[in-house]
Amino acid sequence: MQRIVVLNPKGGSGKTTIATNLASYLAAHGHAPVLMDFDPQGSSLRWVKKRKPTQPAVQVIAAFEKDTRTTRAFQLRVPEETTHVIVDTPAALEARQLPEMTRDAHKILVPVLPSDIDIHACSRCIRDLLLVGKIRRDEDRIGVIANRIRRNTLIYQALIRFLHTLGIPIVATIRDSQNYVRAAELGVGVHEMKSYVAHEDIEQWEPLVSWLAGPRDAAQGPPAAPPQAAAAAPATATAAGTAAAGSQPAAEDSALQEADKPAAADEARAGLTPALAIA
Ligand SMILES: Nc1ncnc2c1ncn2[C@@H]1O[C@H](COP(=O)(O)OP(=O)(O)OP(=O)(O)O)[C@@H](O)[C@H]1O
Ligand SMILES: [Mg+2]
């Protein structure tokens, strides 16, 4: 059984969209996924409840509900046949909650939107995962998903440059598409829509699915700067601290880093290298 946690404390980055579409993909491919909804908004729970009995089954656990009549372990138990547990997490998750949320995670997906605010929030999230969550980059457990992408925009290129500086793989690039909005309304995923409507969206899930399934070396590895981005700013893609156009997130992050600088031993454990823009 594989546990996949979808996480980014920044609201609206696409956690529920990724979690539900991944559940839909897995169910449609004969797996037995469970969506575990830790968000009191209950969006994943609502999505599952919209599904019809004729659709491939996705189980759901309302993990945000605290049932005092049973133990927590009992409340969170999954059916025996479960192949994947997909954890949808709430916005504003605090750094101190990360170790518990990610402890048993085989993979952690961090969706990020192409905006300056989101890029900055993402850098903070990755830093917290490494330093507070004690996840080592060489474990290859963290994958970033560039979400709601419109190619050929400057902010997209800035996002890709920023992700490149992190040394964390971009495991999917998901376009901005009304199919995701429609799918959410209908309780389906893009994989369950007609392929002539959603084939462009469906294709974009292939790298993500193979990263989730594959051995370590099947991952894309630290992303190469895309040609446009490299052409736009050839010197920025490899240098630490040059994240995003104008490098503001990196500058702010070094300030943050100063504010709550971890012990050197912690940094070593987290596997931070000088290539990490936020270190
Ligand atoms: N690739 C996409 N294309 C178009 N719309 C999208 C895409 N991804 C997400 N959205 C839309 O953006 C909104 C926010 O997405 P979503 O609810 O998945 O984010 P979230 O991170 O779960 O938010 P929260 O932090 O509030 O839980 C939703 O209306 C969703 O349909
Ligand atoms: Mg959500």
Q: What do these coordinates show?
A:
- α5 packs parallel to α6 and α5 (116-131) runs parallel beside α11 (248-259).
- Strands 3-2-4-1-5-6-7 form a 7-stranded parallel β-sheet, with helices on both faces.
- It has 279 residues and is of the alpha/beta class.
- It has helices spanning 15-28, 43-50, 72-75, 98-102, 116-131, 154-166, 178-186, 195-203, 206-213, 227-232, 248-259, 264-270, and strands spanning 2-6, 33-37, 59-61, 84-88, 107-112, 142-149, 170-175.
- The chain has one domain: Rossmann fold (3-Layer(aba) Sandwich), CATH 3.40.50.300.
- α2 links the parallel β2 and β3 (59-61).
- Helix content is 40%, strand content 14%.
- The two termini are 33 Å apart.
- The radius of gyration is 18 Å and the shape is globular.
- The structure holds adenosine-5'-triphosphate and magnesium ion (MG).
- Adenosine-5'-triphosphate binds next to α1, β6 and α7.
Brief rundown of the structure:
With 279 residues, the chain is α/β, with parallel strands linked by helices.
Question: Any idea what the CATH superfamily is called?
Answer: P-loop containing nucleotide triphosphate hydrolases
Q: Strands of the biggest beta sheet: in what spatial order?
A: 3-2-4-1-5-6-7
Helix count equals: 12
- Summing up helix and strand content along with how strands pair, one would put the structural category as alpha/beta
Strand content: 5-15%
Regarding quaternary structure, how should these chains be classified? single chain
Number of separate structural domains? 1
CATH fold description = Rossmann fold
Low-confidence stretches: 216-279
CATH architecture tag: 3-Layer(aba) Sandwich
Hetero compounds: adenosine-5'-triphosphate, magnesium ion
